[in-house]
Amino acid sequence: MARNELILNGVTKRFGGLTAVDDLTLKVEEGQIYGVIGPNGAGKTTVFNCITGIYKSEEGSINWRGKEIRGMTPYQIVRRGIVRTFQTIRLFSEMSVAENIMSGRHIKSRQRWWHGIVHTPASRRDERENWKRVEQQLDFFNLSEFAATPTNSLPYGIQRRVEMARAMAVEPTLLILDEPAAGLNDKETLELLQTIFRIREQGVTVLLIEHDMDMVMEATDYLTVLNFGKKIAEGTPDEIQEHPDVIEAYLGSEHDDDE
User: Which domain holds residue 204?
Assistant: First the structure.
């Protein structure tokens, strides 16, 4: 049986004359919390967009569970268990929290368009099962009290939780989080950290981008560091914090100061 491993080999993505991701190779192993970090503009979100089918890389391979997924559409990749959140929240603002989470069940539903007109015992069972999954996510993310609340009336930190709950409603095996701590206060960031650990306990591998270095060093097992689209380092959080190329990328070099 194929393991839940994500392997990128020589992935390159260009936009005209700009190489946003340059010959990137990395391996995310089953059960890891894996981080991709780097300064603004390093190519991190572009990597995620290549993995999830929003972009197709010009070169390289993206292998998930032993199968090539480069060139697949986003919905085909979701069907294979890879689900993501976005750097900017993308909820249905007029819909309730429960309805937003339910939208994540669409790809799992066995209903067809005609079941909106003619309800069958099978379609009713499917509907009940989907709402049961929604209730589980409401409970997991401590959102039950907001179930009927439109998301546009909720604080930013709660909206972040709704987006993660919607992603988890898809039952992913690889959850990709793009800056999940952005805009959160210290208390919310600590709660997020605990939530990520609990997600991993459910057997979900986690791949994340994050600018909060305290949070990412606490959360991750292994890291890849990008700068100007190229990998400059990889290793454990302790190794990355001492790596001279990483320190230079974030803080600059003495030579830069002299100039």
Answer: 1-81+172-259
